[in-house]
Amino acid sequence: MTFKLKLARGCKVLNQTEDGITVIEKGPGILTHPNQGRSISAKGRNTCLLNNDYNYDGEFYEISDKAKLYLTHRLDSPTSGIIITTTRKDLAQEIKSKFKRKEIEKTYHAIVSVPERLKPGLWNDLLEEKRVGGKLRVFPGKGVLSKSICFIERNPTKIHRLALIKLHPKTGRTHQLRVQTSCRKMPIVGDKTYGDFSMNRKIIKTTQVERLCLHASAISFRINQRKILIESNLPVEFEKLLSLP
Predict the structure, then answer these.
(1) The last residue of a domain, from among 46, 69, 101
(2) Which residue has the higher pLDDT, 70 or 135?
(3) Which of 45, 97, 160, 166 is the most exposed place for a label (fewest CB within 10 A)?
(4) What is the spatial distance between Cα 223 and Cα 70, in angstroms, rounded to a whole number?
(5) Does one domain contain both 70 and 119?
(6) What residues contact 28, with CB distance under 8 A and at least 6 apart?
């Protein structure tokens, strides 16, 4: 089943398959779904993935009287990239189970500011969630084990020392990649919570790029005896930053 979706600005459909999978590329600053318990104005709908009613219990958007679009996972609002949805409830549950069993490989790309040397390789950190001023924050030092693998894709630029890295999270903790990069003194550019705020202001002034430079660039998994690989190109803002000398 294929159909046209009322997507938010900056979002687009990457692929629709015959078995009901719809792959959406989410733009930065867009909510995967509306925040529960808050009324949504017409303007507020434009900040959500789809301009449709959302069912929190069933975790689906109501596309029409007969069609539903189920979410299988989420991305933080500032993060752009791939989201897997499906029109089939049974398939949504199967993909969700694969996420829980860590049978889905996720790849992210990020631009980081590197005041010191890059630290690629396997990252193991204990991360703890806390409420600070009513907002969820994550801190290193204790808590649950969080694992990621980091690769260097492009070495730092001379201006602002901006490097492109590829990240494979092996666990799915809240804000995991943002905190793991920050605690290694290589924060993600544009991070308004865990980033280098002074550096962010300089980059905005130099390039006019004002976003979290974290992008969910690939997802792969097996389903019904076939391998599915979904890829998303780097955002244009990334290329702008990486073109600095």
Answers:
(1) 101
(2) 70
(3) 97
(4) 17
(5) no
(6) 10, 77, 78, 79, 80, 211, 212, 235
170 with 240, same domain: the answer is: yes
Query: What pLDDT digit, counting tens, does each position of 16-74 carry?
Result: 988 899 999 999 999 999 987 654 444 445 689 999 999 999 999 999 888 999 999 99
* Shared-domain flag, residues 134 and 151: yes
**Domain carrying residue 169:** 103-245
Distance CA 73, CA 84 (A): 7
Give this prediction's pTM.
0.93
Same domain, 225 and 114: yes
Place of tokens 């950190």: 125
Angle (CA) 234 95 80, round 5°: 20
What's 73's DSSP letter?
A: -
Confidence of residue 149 (pLDDT cuts 50, 70, 90): very high
Instruction: Name 86's bridge partners.
Output: 21, 70
- What residues have CB less than 8 Å from 60, skipping those under 6 apart? 54, 68, 69, 70, 71, 89, 92
φ, ψ of residue 140 in degrees (nearest 5):
-80, 160
Encode burial over 16-38: b for 16+ CB neighbours within 10 A, e otherwise. beeebbbbbbbbbbbbbbbeeee
* Mean pLDDT, all residues of the chain: 92
